[in-house]
Amino acid sequence: AMRWKQAIRGMRTARKAADDRLRQFERSFNIGEGAIKRVDICQLAANQPIEDFYSLGRCVSSRALLLAVCDGHGGSACARFISAHLMAYVCAAVLDKHMVAEVPVEKRLEWIFSSSEAHLNQENNLSAIEERLHDFHSKFRNMDTKTVKSTLQAAFLALDEDIANAALPNSKGQVHRARASIAAAGSCASFAHIRSRNLHVANVGDCAAVLGVESASGIVSSLQLSRPHCVENADEVARIKSAHPSSESHVLRGGRLLGELYPLRAFGDVRYKWPLDLQKAVLGPLGSPPPPNLLTPPYLTAMPEVFHHKLTRSDRFLIVASDGLWEWFDADTAVRLVRDHSLGALSLQPYEPTHDQTLNEVYEQLKARSIKKKHNHRAGERKRPLDTNSATHLLRHALGGVSGGLSEQYHRLHDQLQLPDGAARSYRDDISIMVVHFDEAYLSNPDDDSTE
């Protein structure tokens, strides 16, 4: 019996260690404004240091909620920079018709959180790029932009151009090493912009955004709001091939750009954008050689593909995540997991009647809760979830699997989580997950704002 007790204790300790590791970087923010109830976030590193960053903020001028997941490659410098500055550029490009408050450009972004810690030292962060931000803002004033889509595209391209320009030699021919290393590294990004009922997703590379939509009969399905920019995307392959002479058969080799880069759109990565002589001058001293067969650059762009979706009463939540998550399961599985979590999480919340309710109303509400729970059992979720955070719930099922019992799941989790950061990179990627939960009551009201 003693040995059995020890085994149980050992199992509990191992499970607690796995839970603690999964939840180490989880966060939840109650937004409670307009269409948005709250945002759940979770992240797990595989690289040492991590190359994924995420940010959550609000544009003071338009009251839009902004969120970004940035997945870096070739180091973390570019992704960290994007996650710290992309939102400020988006806030500099607000259309006049969406302006609810006149705010100077450098004060338009209200940080909620950023894993790059940009929200902690906004002042020092901005001083370095404030001039560039103002330049972009005055350029933007002269652009003929009429849609949020074109403002997002302008902001992405301007930031990417500024990253490249900051790496150029100064008048004395000196190169700023830190800026050059930002430009030499690269980053994909998925960016969501939610203003009243208008949801825009701007995507560069292979992060992805997925909407969870519930039918009248309670079945949840996924709606993809981004497409990955890689060789699996035929439109993307055609776009790149048409931009270069047909004699350049090497443009896509082995499923990669010039045989090297997997995402076919990205921030930074000036090795695929700059001409050879410029690369030799700036990147040569950094030990960053040009890719082979660089004949007609640029081969790469940070132009985002933008999808617009008008939120309806059936839209429940939005998942934005780096490709580290999507390696484990598809969009339908992800939305089913988040939906099951929302139903199961009801049982984690204590029931509290308000003081002015009649006994009859209390009875009806408790009955509704138990019916929801029953439906939940039918949906195959036999138990309440282990995590209060829906992003952590996704991470748990990504690494632990969606089949088999609890002990099997913990066994798989243990295998994945005991790999030290760095070594884990051979088995999985960094994973960053943001889940935006919509307010059903707000979305059930008649639509008061039809403009994009």
Automatic annotation (TrEMBL):
GO cellular component, one term: mitochondrion
An MF annotation (GO) of this entry: [pyruvate dehydrogenase (acetyl-transferring)]-phosphatase activity
Domain PPM-type phosphatase: 38-438
PROSITE patterns tied to this protein: PPM_1, PPM_2
Keyword annotations: Hydrolase, Metal-binding, Protein phosphatase
Pfam families named among the record's database cross-references: PP2C
Matches recorded under PANTHER family: GM14286P, PROTEIN PHOSPHATASE 2C
Family affiliation: Belongs to the PP2C family.
Protein's UniProt name: PPM-type phosphatase domain-containing protein
